[in-house]
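Ops channel
N.P.: pipeline sanity check, posting one input/output pair.
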């Protein structure tokens, strides 16, 4: 059975090739989406060609709902998006994938049901399909080459869904077992360098020494140092001093 009910259903309308259905399933499962609905696949269903392209996401194919038309595929939903790159001459709100998936997340949080429709590979959704949607998703692609294949469009919307549902870290640091240096460690490093640089006559002329030391302190505080980095920098300076003394 499909997993978390609080996710949109992705509806593939009249997909043409089994391979593309499999690739779309893989793209969906990459982002934790497992509610696939198929409307009148050209080559029938099930389609053995889809399994190889699904590459580990075969469960989505096994559990995909098959529908004869768009109306039955989205009939249980109260917010339906249609993906298209072409002007349709229809009066509907047009969302970017990012804003559409935010709206989807909000509606699902309120207990609603959401569907996102994707058209056939060659020409996309027909106007009659789009007319059954509440809103349009338009990907900001190069206007001179707006064509996306089915799996690419599914992947884009899946990624934005993942972002909208709060499951993507905007940034993280891979420390590989290290720890960030503490303030006192950085302070001791700054003192070590100030001492040795003072002995070397770096802070010259004297009336600029305080400003130069402040600049160095600011430099150390801006650097994202680990404890290992601090030990390495201490070691570098000690070795340079030893080399100078031997010379």
């Amino acid at each position: 059975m499909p997993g978390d009910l609080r996710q949109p259903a992705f509806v593939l309308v009249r997909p043409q090739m089994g391979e593309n259905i499999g690739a779309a399933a893989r793209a969906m499962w990459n982002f934790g989406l497992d509610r696939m609905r198929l409307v009148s696949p050209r080559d029938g269903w099930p389609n053995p060609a889809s399994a190889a392209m699904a590459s580990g996401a075969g469960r989505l194919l096994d559990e995909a709902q098959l529908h004869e038309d768009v109306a039955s595929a989205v009939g249980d939903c109260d917010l339906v998006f249609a993906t298209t790159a072409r002007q349709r001459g229809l009066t509907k709100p047009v969302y970017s994938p990012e804003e559409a998936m935010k709206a989807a997340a909000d509606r699902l949080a309120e207990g609603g049901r959401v569907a996102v429709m994707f058209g056939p590979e060659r020409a996309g959704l027909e106007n009659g399909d789009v007319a059954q949607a509440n809103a349009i998703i338009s990907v900001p692609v190069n206007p001179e080459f707006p064509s996306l294949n089915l799996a690419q469009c599914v992947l884009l919307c899946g990624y934005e869904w993942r972002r909208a549902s709060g499951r993507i870290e905007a940034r993280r640091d891979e420390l590989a077992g290290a720890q960030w240096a503490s303030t006192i460690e950085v302070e001791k490093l700054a003192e070590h360098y100030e001492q040795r640089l003072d002995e070397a006559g770096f802070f010259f002329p004297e009336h600029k020494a305080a400003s130069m030391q402040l600049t160095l302190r600011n430099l150390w505080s801006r650097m994202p140092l680990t404890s290992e980095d601090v030990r390495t920098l201490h070691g570098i300076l000690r070795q340079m001093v030893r080399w100078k003394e031997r010379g």
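N.P.: looks fine end to end. The first strand starts at residue 9 and ends at 13.
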